[in-house]
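Posting here for the record, re: guanosine-5'-diphosphate.
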Amino acid sequence: MKVVVVGNGGVGKTSMIKRFCKGVFTDDYKKTIGVDFLEKQLYVPSIGQDVQLYLWDTAGQEEFDSITKTYYRGAGAAVLAFSTTDRASFDALPSWRSKVLEQCPGIAMALVQNKVDLIEQAVVSSEEAEAMARRLGLKFYRTCVKQDLNVTEVFTYLAELHDRK
Ligand code: GDP
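Prediction output follows.
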């Protein structure tokens, strides 16, 4: 299953993909993985078998309209991500969701608030975040890619949701 990770630049998309597929985290602000996607085999209990996931990074092109149809083509699931410390990344969520649905109607999607380790610098309240999840009709996860909190859970959920569709 192809999985796309979308959201404004700097929310932690590349870090999330690296963390999940390679088990590492670096503080260096590197925009790209250098390849189109990384892959990871994940055992999904409710399906009772391994699912091969192909995680696609936007390669830092998210602020341009150059993320094209190629990026979304064939995607079965999407992570819609924002950062605890970046208000603009939260406000941009509805537009990211529309963009994904335009290219992939019926795709499995989840809302992710990353960088919860920086909660004392939060610019979005938990009520607002939960209201956004309800408004968008998405299951809501809080992650810390840095400390590996809840990352596997997001992808397990997406694999299950995709399987049920
Ligand atoms: P992208 O532009 O969305 O792909 O974001 P990156 O993966 O390049 O991450 C942007 C910055 O946020 C990098 O410096 C990461 O190290 C940092 N970052 C990513 N996840 C976390 C997290 O959970 N906590 C903290 N404190 N920093 C994070």
